Amino acid sequence: MNRTHKVQIVLFIIYILIVTTVMIWQGIGIDPSRYIFVLLIPAFFLKKTRAFFLDWIPFLFIFLSYEFLRGLTPFVNPRANFTLAPAFDKIFGGQIPTITLQSLLFNPNHLGFVDYLATMFYFVHLALPYVFGYILWIYNRNYFRRFALGIIILSYSGWLTFILFPAAPPWLASQHGFLPHVYRVVDFTSQSFPEKIHLPSIYHDFYPNNVAAIPSMHAAYPLLVLLFGLKFFKRKMIPFVLYVIGVWFSLVYLGEHYVLDEIIGGLYAIGAYFITERLYKNRHDLESKITKVLPFTKILLAPGNKLS
To answer: Which end of the chain has fewer CB within 10 Å, C or N?
Structure first.
């Protein structure tokens, strides 16, 4: 990575941290339809607007279609499993980790630092793939395309599982009497934001799917980022392990996921990573066949050069 790339990436990280913080605090939902404009601004200043549209529009179109299809999942398969994940989680001393953590740390009458930090971890996952993808795009367009393909494989694998095996999160299982009382902490912390807050708005736009706990995509996305980060940036990504741990802890504490959901999400991320790497190793043999069936993948599988 040359000095120019380093400066561009540092400035972009500062920019995205400021913009994302303002968006969250002002109630502007973090979703692809808005984030495309957030990412377009630095591309304009880098004089790479055309390259941005060529590389990102197909990716965003596919990801948006996934989000739309995910919202239809409850209509396709309304039956939800409430028992598998809690049965597994009871191996941790016979108590559900979510209930244990909330009994130790959560006070609905006095929200603390952990509650707000966990909430931020929970919502930032929507922006994370775009931020990391943009860093790759600045540095190496071929890296970006590999990561984009990995995200798409992971997302559609998760969506297919949501249809075949819809599963309820801890807070919903509690509401239906399958667990003792579990707080949905986000419902409490979000009250501290401005009244216009809608986080994340994409769930409101495409209808929420409350029975998409397995696999946990919140757990899968940061792990996939970590795997590709270690591949491309080596030891520089080691500190990101702390972020992944923070996200996984937050999901359980907030009542949004069981430990089993996270484990399966992690396995999906690992699988998506290795499938992507395998596709790229055999790209020349498979590209012509794949693009005949799925023409939009051509831009993802095409070789790329570093942006200067």
So the answer is: C
**Residue span of the structural domain in which 144 resides:** 3-301
Give per-residue pLDDT as tens, 260-273.
Answer: 999 999 999 999 99
The DSSP result for 121-149, as a single string, is HHHHTTTHHHHHHHHHHHH-HHHHHHHHH
> What's the whole-model pTM score?
0.81
For the chain, the domain total comes to 1
Q: Is residue 306 part of a domain?
A: no
Instruction: Tell me the per-residue pLDDT of 63-82, one tens digit each, with 9 for 90 and over.
Output: 667 666 666 666 666 678 89
Does residue 96 belong to any structural domain of this protein?
Answer: yes
The C-alpha angle with vertex 231 and arms to 225 and 237, in degrees rounded to 5, equals 60
Any domain includes 307? no
Q: Which residue has the tokens 């999160």?
A: 169
Q: Which of 200, 131, 162 is nearest to 66 (CA)?
A: 162
Tokens of 27: 């109630």
Query: Is residue 154 one of the residues assigned to a domain?
Result: yes
